[in-house]
Fold these 2 entries.
Entry 1:
Amino acid sequence: MRCPNCGHENPEGTLFCEECDWRIDQAVRMKLGVNSVYLAYISVALGAVAAIAAFAGIGVAGVGLGAVGMFLGGYCMTAVRISGIKGKVKTILMAIAAVAIILSIFGFIYGITVL
Ligand SMILES: [Zn+2]
């Protein structure tokens, strides 16, 4: 694992760089945080499309997109938790993920009824 601070190559799984004491997993956490923002938007978009598709009578799309949306929404919540995001951003991301999951569940269930 290469240290993002000094470039020193550390053994896999090292938490603090042997050379400069930089906390290596910080970069991983930051990446997770950024990814969770994208995940939140993607999952809420999927959820919305799933709900709309189900309403439009395209059950397959509702069920399929709803399933993916639920998974991504749940993954997003996990990513937010692990990344250590705090405060308002965390609340907003969690809210978006929750909306995504609700929309996805709705699209999924409604999709089944119109299959
Ligand atoms: Zn280092």
Entry 2:
Amino acid sequence: MKAVQLTTSGDYSSHYLIDDHEQWEREIGMHEGLSLERLNYNTVPKPVAGPGEVVVEIHGAGLNHLDVWAVQCAPSHQRSESRIPGSDIAGIVESTGEGVSSCSPGDRVVLHSATPCMNCPMCLTGRDNNCLALGSFGSSRDGGLAEYTLAPEWNVIALPDTVSLVDAASLPVAYMTAWHMLVARAGVRRGDWVLVNAAGSGVGIAATQIAKLFGAHVVTSAGSDAKLEKSRELGASETINYSTHSLYEEAMRVTGGRGVDIVIDSLSDELMEQSVEALAAGGRLVNCGCTLGNWARVNVARMMAKESSVLGSVMGCKQELIEVVREVGRGGLRAVVDRTFPLSQAREAVAYLAHRKQFGKVVVVPDAHYPPEV
Ligand SMILES: NC(=O)c1ccc[n+]([C@@H]2O[C@H](COP(=O)([O-])OP(=O)(O)OC[C@H]3O[C@@H](n4cnc5c(N)ncnc54)[C@H](OP(=O)(O)O)[C@@H]3O)[C@@H](O)[C@H]2O)c1
Ligand SMILES: [Zn+2]
């Protein structure tokens, strides 16, 4: 089968492991370039389903910023083995191994991106996103930039007829992460003011819609007016261009000096610092990403005085993805696919994301199914 391999394979989390700011800049910073030549379109063996496993014919693989990190992998964290990247996968069950009972060949499915052990203290207490041995497609096992993939039966989620395979491929990491941030971590409630940073990112377009679904007032921020205009179409009532304006001052202005109850942040660095300042009393900032670097400063004294909280968030639990899929199926949320690329042009697809051109998700489709039906 055809697949894209990362020949000098990157560990997706390599940038989280760097403690030194200067080393982060040197190894990860955008100025280092993308090393797109690390992605190669190859012919590799097609997987075969063993007991408890399912082979899925891939019809869409959603890209995430994770895939940019993988290509930009810090030289100090490169591994020698090749890996097929891509955490978000949707397709049709092609074959099932011995003992598989919950799906059959021909079923339309989306895969939960993570592969928790389901046997550690975290998994056993319903926190499979915090599994002590957490793996994921595209990182610890081959992912979606291929014609077929091999999945544990546990990861397979049936799709409603109303959700296309390309739309489904755009959901897992971004929507599940945003759901976990807003619902599990921040406890979003009707009437809350929610600031969503990087509104055109995968996490941002999902968070904007989920916050609206729960009855919040949504303020979004992004680096261009064009992205902010699209963000209004998704439900943002106020928008802030952080390339031209102070995020803090604008957040205070649009909330009448009150501040926001929740910030959904994936940028970190100086924009996160301003976001913490923009929290109302009792507010919660939830961060899931370090697009601008691994560090941010906070004024601890003001956090204390306002009883504000800064929370981390990683991925989500399988049940949260099931709820996302159900909401998209019934029209409560919608997939926002900016562009599709054929698998043979995976390098162009990753570059498109790295250069901040997208509003929403970029989905890669095997050439045999390209262009996809919409
Ligand atoms: N913890 C988790 O489980 C988890 C899950 C998903 C994602 N993440 C992390 O969350 C972040 C967002 O992920 P995503 O897949 O939603 O991202 P994405 O779709 O690639 O979007 C990233 C956004 O960041 C903004 N940005 C600002 N400065 C940038 C720069 N120098 N380079 C690139 N982008 C810049 C861009 O918006 P403007 O052009 O408007 O500035 C862009 O839309 C990433 O850091 C990712 O690793 C973490
Ligand atoms: Zn576990």
